[in-house]
From TrEMBL, chain A:
One of its GO terms (cellular component) is signal recognition particle, endoplasmic reticulum targeting. Residues 109-133 are annotated as: Disordered. Residues 113-126 have a biased composition (Basic residues). It comes from Xylaria flabelliformis. Gene3D superfamilies: Signal recognition particle alu RNA binding heterodimer, srp9/1. GO terms for molecular function: 7S RNA binding; endoplasmic reticulum signal peptide binding. One of its GO terms (biological process) is SRP-dependent cotranslational protein targeting to membrane. Belongs to the SRP14 family. The lineage of its organism: Eukaryota, Fungi, Dikarya, Ascomycota, Pezizomycotina. Component of a fungal signal recognition particle (SRP) complex that consists of a 7SL RNA molecule (scR1) and at least six protein subunits: SRP72, SRP68, SRP54, SEC65, SRP21 and SRP14. The keyword Transmembrane helix does not apply. This is Signal recognition particle subunit SRP14.
Automatic annotation (TrEMBL), chain B:
GO terms for molecular function: 7S RNA binding. Signal peptide: none annotated. PANTHER family: SIGNAL RECOGNITION PARTICLE 9 KDA PROTEIN (PTHR12834). Residues 31-64, 120-174 are annotated as: Disordered. Gene3D superfamilies: Signal recognition particle alu RNA binding heterodimer, srp9/1 (3.30.720.10). One of its GO terms (cellular component) is signal recognition particle, endoplasmic reticulum targeting. Residues 5-106 form the SRP9 domain. Pfam families: SRP9-21 (PF05486). It comes from Xylaria flabelliformis. It comes from the Eukaryota. GO terms for biological process: SRP-dependent cotranslational protein targeting to membrane. This is SRP9 domain-containing protein. Residues 50-64, 145-157 have a biased composition (Low complexity).
C-alpha cells in the first residue's frame, strides 16, 4: 500500500481512533523511522565519514499505523494499515497536529486526577508545617 | 528490555540510540486498551472464578485505568530496546512532541537549541570512557566500507552505556 498524503493520513487516523472509542479492548500501534529505502545516498568521498550518520541532506520520516490485528482478522479484511511520509521541512507542523490527534484519540487513558491533587496539596501543607515547626 | 521510570530518561537514551544508529532505529507507540473492568467473556469468567474464591476483588478493579501508552525505541541491528509506559492522559501531548524531537534526529535535521542539553551530556559521557573503545571504532571504520556503519556505532553505544549507572539497564540485550 502506498503511503497516504499527510492530510489523508490524519483523516484516517482520526477515524481509526474513533473506531476504538468506547471499546474496552484492542490496540493502535504507531511507528516512526527514517525512510532510507530508495533514498539515493552518494558514495562517501572520505571513507572515515559514514553516510548513515551524516547524510548530506535531511531524510524524510516514515510513519506507520496499524490496529494490530492479525491472522483471522487479516483474512476478514479487518486489519487496517496506514502509512505516510513526512518531509523534513514538514516535521514540526506534522508532529503538532499528530499530538493533537493522539490526545483526542487516546481518550481511555487516565484523566488528570483532581481529588488526588487536593490530597497532595494537603500533604504538602502538612509537610511544610512539619519542617517549619 | 528496560522500562524507564521517567519519560525524560527514556527520551535521553532514545536520542543517544538514534544518534548511534539513525538508519535502523524505530520508535513504536502502542495505545493499548486493557479490559480490566469490561465485558470480555474470558475476563468475566475469570472474575467470576475469582469472586467465588475471594469476595472483595471487585472494588479495586473499578478504579484501574482502562488504557496504557507504551513507547518503545528499538534498533534491530544491536537489539537495543528502550521502553516507557504511562497511563496518564496528561502526558500524551508532551510525549508525541518528544517523538517529534526524536524525529528530527532521525531526519538528520539540525537540532533546535533547547535540545542541546542532551547533546552536551552525550559528549560528556563519551569523554568519560576509556579511549580504547573509541579509537577501535574509528580505526575499524576506516577499513571496510560495508562494515563502516556498524563498528563506530557500536563504539558510541558502548561509550554511552559506560557513561553512567543508568547505562547498565540499557545494554547487552540481544
Amino acid at each position: 500500500m502506498s503511503p497516504l498524503s499527510n492530510d489523508e493520513f490524519f483523516a484516517k487516523l482520526v477515524e481509526l481512533f474513533d473506531s476504538r472509542k468506547g471499546k474496552d479492548h484492542g490496540s493502535i500501534v504507531l511507528t516512526q523511522k527514517r525512510l532510507s529505502y530508495n533514498q539515493a545516498l552518494p558514495e562517501p568521498a572520505d571513507e572515515t565519514v559514514i553516510p548513515d550518520l551524516h547524510p548530506p541532506r535531511p531524510l524524510p520520516i516514515l510513519i506507520r499505523v496499524t490496529n494490530a490485528k492479525g491472522k483471522e482478522d487479516r483474512k476478514a479484511k479487518q486489519k487496517i494499515k496506514l502509512s505516510t511520509v513526512v518531509e523534513p521541512d514538514a516535521l514540526p507542523a506534522f508532529f503538532e497536529r499528530y499530538a493533537d490527534v493522539c490526545k483526542l484519540g487516546m481518550a481511555s487513558l487516565k484523566p488528570r486526577d483532581r481529588s488526588k491533587r487536593k490530597g497532595k496539596a494537603k500533604k504538602k501543607s502538612k509537610a511544610g508545617a512539619a519542617t517549619t515547626a | 528490555m528496560p522500562y524507564y521510570e521517567t519519560s525524560q530518561e527514556w527520551l535521553r537514551q532514545s536520542a543517544l540510540l538514534i544518534e548511534a544508529r539513525p538508519n535502523t532505529t524505530r520508535i513504536t507507540t502502542k495505545y493499548h486498551l486493557t479490559d480490566k473492568t469490561g465485558t470480555s467473556k474470558k475476563r468475566q469468567k475469570r472474575r467470576q472464578q475469582q469472586e467465588s474464591t475471594t469476595t472483595t476483588t471487585t472494588a479495586p478493579t473499578a478504579s484501574t485505568p482502562r488504557a496504557s501508552l507504551t513507547l518503545k525505541t528499538f534498533d534491530p541491528h544491536s537489539g537495543a530496546c528502550l521502553k516507557y509506559r504511562t497511563t496518564k492522559a496528561a502526558e500524551v501531548s508532551r510525549l508525541i512532541l518528544s517523538l517529534g524531537q526524536l524525529g528530527r534526529r532521525m531526519a538528520a535535521l539540525p537540532l533546535p537549541a533547547d535540545s542541546d542539553a542532551v547533546m552536551a551530556d552525550a559528549g560528556a559521557e563519551e569523554v568519560g570512557t576509556p579511549g580504547v573503545e573509541k579509537s577501535e571504532g574509528v580505526a575499524s571504520g576506516g577499513v571496510a566500507k560495508g562494515q563502516a556503519p556498524q563498528t563506530p556505532a557500536q563504539g558510541q553505544q558502548q561509550a554511552g552505556g559506560g557513561g553512567g549507572g543508568k547505562g547498565k539497564k540499557k545494554r547487552g540485550k540481544k
